[in-house]
Amino acid sequence: MGAAVEFKGKGQALRLGIQQELGGGPLTIFGEAAQRHDLSIRVVSAGVLAVLAEEFPSLEFRQRNSLTKQEIHKKLSTIDPRLGKTLFVRSSSIKPDGAITEVKDRHGRWRVVLVGESKHQGNDIEKITVGEKQGKKKDQDFMVAGNALERVHKNILEIRNLMIDERHFPYAVFLQGSNFATESFQIDCRDGRVVKVIHDSGMLNRIDRVTASNLGREINKNYCENITISVGGSPQMLQIASLYFQAAPWEAKEMGEIMLDIARTSLRIIGNDL
Questions:
Q1: Is residue 57 scored above 80 in pLDDT?
Q2: 3-state DSSP assignment of residue 189
Q3: Which of 124, 117, 171 is nearest to 146 (CA)?
Q4: What is the Cα–Cα distance from 240 to 166, expressed in whole angstroms?
Q5: CA 65, CA 72: separation in Å to the nearest integer?
Q6: Each residue's pLDDT tens digit, 13-50
Q7: Contact, 224 vs 169, CB < 8 A?
Q8: In whole angstroms, what separates CA 113 from the centre of its chain?
């Protein structure tokens, strides 16, 4: 599917439009084809949208690929005129790779019900398995982990700005690769060696670089529904990203089930407005 494709509509028509655009792909994300690792999160999110259209035929959904900072700042300024003032590049936007799924409420407002992202960092498992050494001298099994996660934090913060007045935060991030291993394991190499991946190695693991976005809560859980804490006797609502980590590639079925659960949670929370 091309990056420019956006979906909008309700019920059977929307579902069939998605199926036609993707050659039937999205409706298989919970079946046998879901064992594939090469289905992009954009395709999986379109599949989730197709399921939502079938489950809630009276609701109008749309799925778009980008969101401008102008729109975010406009929303902020309606909450408080002191907000949303600074913008140098008027064309600035965010583009979560799993798209932004929205539903139209009975007041005619589009409400975000799902945002998805998928990131891969750390190819050590693949390299070790085939016996390919790494590093400048090509004599290392492991590479020091990179820092390609800043965009994830930026996108999460921007969606928080847009949803500052909502009681839910449906942001799901799937992180995979050796830099996101949650337990230690061994790799059997072609040359007969056995290499152990230490999941809490400071050189390798980058989970702690991401959990600022979920305030250090447990990983691999749905945090779509906001929580309220007391700070100095005053209530403060927290919007927390749902972060999912594992070393192995995420299967389409796994991502689809998680994102569908988050989208359903969103619809339950805003149900009185639909």
A1: yes
A2: coil
A3: 124
A4: 12
A5: 15
A6: 998 888 888 776 666 666 655 555 557 899 899 999 99
A7: yes
A8: 12
DSSP-derived secondary structure for 234-266: EEEEE---EEEEESSPPPHHHHHHHHHHHHHHH
Its pTM stands at 0.85
The predicted structure's pLDDT at residue 24:
64
Nearest to 148 by CA among 170, 126, 176: 176
Residue spans per domain, the chain? 7-65+96-273
Show which residues are catalytic.
Answer: 97, 117, 119
The distance in angstroms from the start CA to the end CA of the chain is: 30
Q: For the beta carbon of residue 201, count every other beta carbon within 10 angstroms.
A: 15
Q: Are 9 and 17 in contact (CB under 8 A)?
A: yes
Please give the Cα distance from 67 to 145 (Å, whole number).
Answer: 30
Query: Is the separation of the CB atoms in 70 and 87 below 8 Å?
Result: yes
* Under 8 Å between Cβ of 243 and 219: yes
Please state, in angstroms and rounded to a whole number, the distance separating the CA atoms of residues 55 and 249.
Answer: 28
Return the CATH fold of 7-65+96-273.
ECO RI Endonuclease; Chain A (3.40.580)
Taking residues 184-198, report their average pLDDT. Answer: 69
CB 264 within 8 A of CB 234: no
pLDDT tens, position by position, 84-113: 999 999 899 999 999 999 999 999 999 999
Half-sphere exposure of residue 173, counting CA atoms within 13 Å on the CB side? 26
Predicted pLDDT at 1: 42
Structure-block tokens of residue 22: 């993707």
Quote the tokens at residue 248.
Answer: 């192995």
Please give the Cα distance from 244 to 255 (Å, whole number): 9
